[in-house]
Amino acid sequence: MANRKLLQPEDCLLMIIDIQEKFLPVIDDIESVINQSCFMIQVAKLFDIPIIATEQNPSALGGTAPQLAELLGDNRALEKFTFSCWRNEEIRDQLRRQNRSTILIAGIETPVCILQTGLDLLDAGFDVYLCVDAISARKPLDHKVALERLTNAGAIVGTVETAAFELLKTAESPKFKPLLGLIKQWQKK
Q: What DSSP character marks residue 182?
């Protein structure tokens, strides 16, 4: 994905990776990650962007954080045991069926599932946009190094609000006021 390419709603898919109950106490700045991920789910719905949510070994690590699960509604999280979402056949099939070229990623944990998923998606020919304020890890250094590695491999790094305005394109859009409402609801200073 060239840095000059703006996000297009019809090309995007949002992937929420493994924001699960057992991880919550140990992830750096988890409240912000959950808040920003909730915002991205609402943005995806506003722009009719498909969403895939995943859970790593949910019998051991619990389900998706309740705030996210509520917003996802009937869009059930897909269970996986591979760290890379791409290496799970069901998730890979869902991605292919959606026929979207850009994957917006939010979730945890940066040096494990985010890193491996991002690298595999880049290798498979997808454009990868990392919603950095909706991604975290247990250790800040691991988070930072994984983001650098993904960026060096070709992923684009941006914030959820930047992604939202790229998708919007103009204040003349009928989605402008609903987006402002979402910003007021979810974006904290």
A: H
